[in-house]
From TrEMBL:
<dbReference type="Pfam" id="PF01694">
    <property type="entry name" value="Rhomboid"/>
</dbReference>
<dbReference type="GO" id="GO:0004252">
    <property type="term" value="F:serine-type endopeptidase activity"/>
</dbReference>
<feature type="domain" description="Peptidase S54 rhomboid">
    <location>
        <begin position="68"/>
        <end position="219"/>
    </location>
</feature>
<keyword id="KW-0812">Transmembrane</keyword>
<keyword id="KW-1133">Transmembrane helix</keyword>
<feature type="transmembrane region" description="Helical">
    <location>
        <begin position="200"/>
        <end position="222"/>
    </location>
</feature>
<dbReference type="GO" id="GO:0016020">
    <property type="term" value="C:membrane"/>
</dbReference>
<feature type="transmembrane region" description="Helical">
    <location>
        <begin position="139"/>
        <end position="160"/>
    </location>
</feature>
<feature type="transmembrane region" description="Helical">
    <location>
        <begin position="109"/>
        <end position="133"/>
    </location>
</feature>
<protein>
    <submittedName>
        <fullName>Rhomboid family protein</fullName>
    </submittedName>
</protein>
<feature type="transmembrane region" description="Helical">
    <location>
        <begin position="30"/>
        <end position="51"/>
    </location>
</feature>
<feature type="transmembrane region" description="Helical">
    <location>
        <begin position="71"/>
        <end position="97"/>
    </location>
</feature>
<comment type="similarity">
    <text>Belongs to the peptidase S54 family.</text>
</comment>
<dbReference type="InterPro" id="IPR035952">
    <property type="entry name" value="Rhomboid-like_sf"/>
</dbReference>
<feature type="transmembrane region" description="Helical">
    <location>
        <begin position="172"/>
        <end position="194"/>
    </location>
</feature>
<dbReference type="InterPro" id="IPR022764">
    <property type="entry name" value="Peptidase_S54_rhomboid_dom"/>
</dbReference>
<keyword id="KW-0472">Membrane</keyword>
Amino acid sequence: MRRPRTMRPNIVTEAGLPTRVNQWWENIPFFTSAVVIVCGAIYFVCLLVGYDSFSEICFLPSAVVSRFQVYRIYTAILFHGSLLHVLFNMMALVPLGSELERIMGSVRLLYVTILLATSNAIIHVFIALLVAYNPILTNGYLMNECAIGFSGVLFSMIVIETSLSGVQSRSVFGLFNVPAKWYAFFLLVVFQLLMQNVSLLGHLSGIVSGFAYTFGLFNFLIPGTSFYSSIEASSWLSSCVRRPKFIVCTGGNPSGYIPTNTSSYSTTSGIFSGNIWRNLSSLMPQREVSTQPQSVEDSRFPGRGRTLAAAQGQNASGFHPDSNLQARLLEDNSPNHLSDPAILSTRSVNFNLNPTVR
């Protein structure tokens, strides 16, 4: 007699920690992961060589104004004062930068990050000068405040991502909900109350810069798609473009619905753009929710969107009432009928930003 063959049980094994970490890292787009690597590498090099002269590279308004040390604008965002500082900032950057990069593209997000860092610094210096030299009450403390860290740009990204999400309220650490337009200000207050050596002006400048971007005040500084395409087509960037994590400016997920302002924004070449003066008349941009795909691309928030309900409705209309059950099951399980995930999620992200102020 033949011995019955023993059946092996179906065992579903869970991926190990290194595999899951590798999968998580591979899902982070090119520019966002590059910023994480650069900031992390700079911190560990400073730790190994014992470099702690942050006064030489931090953002110091008095040095920028009196000695015109403009390089501080960009060196300050790459250096961090402690392990927790760089860790929390990069943990906050990964979800924010990944979503924005999938919408804008890698080169476009690089340009926007430089634009936000520059505008943050200008606003920072302007407020510091206003406080130090106003005729009513002068205080030179802000002119000598030395700030480092990527958190100023992160606050700008928070404002932009919140504007893109279109939600009416957001959760603060899962404890309570606040109106979406005040979300960044609540985070600003929470961090000031819970942490020490936090640059209030640095974070506030980031919030103001983020709102200026969403209002379209920087439209005259944002080039067209051909500018980014020419950079992506250059030979010196070809090795980066070929990487699977790199996202071209015309790429991204087209199924994510991107809310637009009621007033149409367009990229202009002049400083005295009509869009700027029209946007100054409103405190917050008015939203319109449309079920039709966008026909005009916003230069700040590129990409076209379509609602998932419309796509599902089109798939459902393709079924014939006389189709047999097997054919319908095959059609329902086919990849063509799977809805694409939206680019932007409405989840709340916990941020723990701690820029070092000396």
